[in-house]
Amino acid sequence: MNRILHPLRAVTVAVTLLGTLPFLSGCSSGSGTYQSSSNTTLGRELQDLQESYDKGIITKKQYEDTKKRLIKKYTE
Question: Of 38, 46, 53, 71, which one has the greatest count of Cβ atoms within 10 A?
Fold first, then answer.
């Protein structure tokens, strides 16, 4: 079955995948503890969102709604 993602969902999936890459690449040293760092920042997510809007992948409303959601996520 050929499925096409909604543009906002595609951006969300891409941002989520980019945000999880540091976790996927980290390996445990065998000490039983797990340390990771995330390079995903509000600035990076906003830049990715702006690029998606500029390329016409998402609408102005999707851009504004997602921007508000991201700012809320990082400031709470």
Answer: 53
